[in-house]
Amino acid sequence: MAQLPKHLSGDQTAINEFLDKFDVFLLDCDGVLWSGDHLFPGTVETLELLRSKGKQVVFVTNNSTKSRAEYQKKLTSMGIPSSVDEIFGSAYSSAIYIARILKLPPPKNKVFVLGESGIETELKSEGIEFIGGTDPAYRRDITPEDYKGIADGSLLDDNVGIVLAGLDFHVNYLKLSHAYHYLARGAKFLATNLDSTLPNNHAFFPGAGSISISLVNMTGQQPIALGKPSQAMMDSIEGKFQFDRKRTCMVGDRLDTDIRFGIEGKLGGTLAVLTGVSKKDEWEAEGAPVIPAYYVEKLSDLRG
Ligand SMILES: O=C(O)[C@H](O)[C@H](O)COP(=O)(O)O
Ligand SMILES: [Mg+2]
């Protein structure tokens, strides 16, 4: 029988022992700190407690709609002090992968983006050219001229070598048609992340994975996903902070991204919170594939 997670909520001794085991906390954002723009009560105080104990906090989010700078603004607006260096989003992870690991030879390294400004900002910061994304020229119905020009290639950019799919609040038939045809021409298929749903207002909405699934269905290809649980992201974070993985804990609300990310990254521990996507019965089920080491009802339970 697999080891079930230790429940920390309400057990001050267990909480103190837990906190003493780690120097670094990788904190997921959506579903842990907040739900959309609703900050969970006690979040600011919990982060203050961690920092007062000398803990390094890194914000690690799969939400690619914002850049690190835009996330810093959101954290500040929520009363959470942070530096851009403490923030790792899937848009940044994807831009690093494209620019420093995939390194397609220009000019065939242009990216067709399904996503928001967070991806565009991070690609720009790595000097990667892109089209699509938030360009208003794509926010319209497809026309007969589009069908013709996409089919014969005259409306496609020959330098696009990558399709990068993230959470796109303005996805439409025209954008999916362009993305599909770039993939059909051999472009690399990347995704910032594959989360099925996005927590917002204490409910769930289409996630990035529910955008890219259209292209998976059309092409039969699975994208390389650069957010959690990808270890490319973990390696980037470790590279920047040079932390001891055994003294590092991943805190998240999703078993299939956050907790898997921590386990596969061989971190010293993982803490699940029940304010987002995953529920207790998922890890209590017979043969559950992902089981956190610890869990609390909410992050602020760490304050005892
Ligand atoms: O669909 C998405 O992109 C994700 O649900 C979402 O943004 C996850 O963000 P995280 O919980 O990793 O902060
Ligand atoms: Mg989350």
Strand order, largest beta sheet: 1-16-15-14-2-5-6
Residue-averaged pLDDT = 96
Q: How are helices and strands ordered from N to C? A: EHEEEHEHEHEHEHEHEEEHEHEHEHE
* CATH 2nd-level architecture of the largest domain: 3-Layer(aba) Sandwich
Which consecutive residue ranges, at least 5 long each, have pLDDT under 50? none
Any idea what the shape is?
A: elongated
Cofactor: Mg(2+)
Active site: 28, 30
GO cellular component, one term: cytoplasm
Catalytic activity: 4-nitrophenyl phosphate + H2O = 4-nitrophenol + phosphate + H(+)
Question: What this model shows, in words?
Answer:
With 304 residues, this protein is of the alpha/beta class. The chain has 2 domains: 6-62 and 229-303, HAD superfamily/HAD-like (Rossmann fold); 105-225, HAD superfamily/HAD-like (Rossmann fold, 3-Layer(aba) Sandwich). Helix content is 36%, strand content 20%. The protein has helices at residues 12-20, 43-52, 68-77, 90-102, 117-125, 144-151, 173-184, 209-219, 231-241, 255-264, 280-284, and strands spanning 6-7, 24-27, 34-35, 38-39, 56-61, 87-89, 110-114, 130-132, 160-165, 188-191, 197-200, 203-206, 224-225, 248-252, 269-273, 294-296. A 7-stranded parallel sheet has the order 1-16-15-14-2-5-6, with helices on both faces. Strand 3 (34-35) and strand 4 form a beta hairpin. Helix 4 (90-102) packs parallel to helix 5 and helix 7 (173-184) crosses helix 8 (209-219). The two termini are 30 Å apart. Magnesium ion is lined by residues 28, 30-32, 252-254, 276.
SSE layout and pairing:
Elements: E1 6-7, H1 12-20, E2 24-27, E3 34-35, E4 38-39, H2 43-52, E5 56-61, H3 68-77, E6 87-89, H4 90-102, E7 110-114, H5 117-125, E8 130-132, H6 144-151, E9 160-165, H7 173-184, E10 188-191, E11 197-200, E12 203-206, H8 209-219, E13 224-225, H9 231-241, E14 248-252, H10 255-264, E15 269-273, H11 280-284, E16 294-296
Parallel strand pairs: 1-16, 2-5, 2-14, 5-6, 7-8, 7-9, 9-10, 10-13, 14-15, 15-16
Antiparallel strand pairs: 3-4, 11-12
Helix pairs in contact: 4-5, 7-8
The protein binds 4-phospho-D-erythronate and magnesium ion.
